[in-house]
Design a protein that fits this description.
This protein is an alpha/beta fold and about 210 residues long. It has seven helices and ten strands. It is globular. It holds the Pfam family PRAI. This is N-(5'-phosphoribosyl)anthranilate isomerase.
């Protein structure tokens, strides 16, 4: 059953600086994403993850993003994470082995079957839907056709891909997602967030219609 919410949750992803973590928390952002995949321009080390994670206040979810990476690395990061985001081709059994809540990111290929994905990843807390670009797991800054998301999908939907303060109202009103995920849309450069863009994004999500 699709989960409806009184408000749309917000995840800021690709955080790399203490000041950005502090501002995101002060703005009331629900989840903060830390990219642990070294090929990303927004990646951080486990050592920096530890530093950033300890400053995250209670009731703000710390999310670690991994892309087809070894279980040993994920285990190393677990003490500093509340939720795992699998953004590669990880099988359900791999995702389930860590004893931690997790979400599965899916790139919106032309042939994707979201109903089947909801069955395959039935133990995920949500499905994060991102734009598809061959060879790029995420962070493309591109949107996709939101009408491709079925209203009857059996998992909470986290909408990602090219979101910004300029289009998030339309996105929320059309898709009615459980949450929205933004990275490049609140940046001045990879991993460097902009305070005004962050604040505008949060404000516009709040202005979008409740569902």
């Amino acid at each position: 059953m699709k989960v409806y919410s009184a408000r749309t949750r917000i995840k800021f992803c690709g955080l790399t600086r203490h000041e950005d973590v502090a501002l995101a928390a002060s703005l009331g952002v629900d989840a903060l994403g830390f990219v642990m995949w070294p090929k990303s321009a927004r990646s951080i080390t486990p050592e920096l993850l530890k530093e950033l994670a300890v400053q995250v206040p209670a009731f703000v979810t710390r999310v670690g993003l991994f892309v087809n990476q070894p279980a040993e690395l994920i285990e190393q990061c677990l003490p500093y994470l509340d939720l795992i985001q699998f953004h590669g081709d990880e099988a359900p059994a791999f995702c389930e082995q860590f004893g931690r809540p997790w979400i599965k990111a899916l790139r919106m290929r032309d042939d994707i079957d979201l109903h089947q994905a909801a069955v395959d990843y039935s133990h995920a807390q949500a499905l994060l839907l991102d734009a598809y670009r061959p060879g790029t797991p995420g962070g493309t800054g591109e949107t996709f056709d939101w009408s491709r998301i079925p209203a009857t999908i059996e998992k909470p939907v986290i909408l990602a891909g090219g979101l910004s303060a300029d289009n998030v109202v339309s996105a929320v009103n059309q898709v009615m997602p459980y949450a929205v995920d933004v990275s490049g849309g609140i940046e001045i450069s990879h991993g460097i967030k902009d305070a005004k863009l962050m604040a505008s994004f949060v404000k516009n999500v709040a202005l979008s219609s409740a569902h």
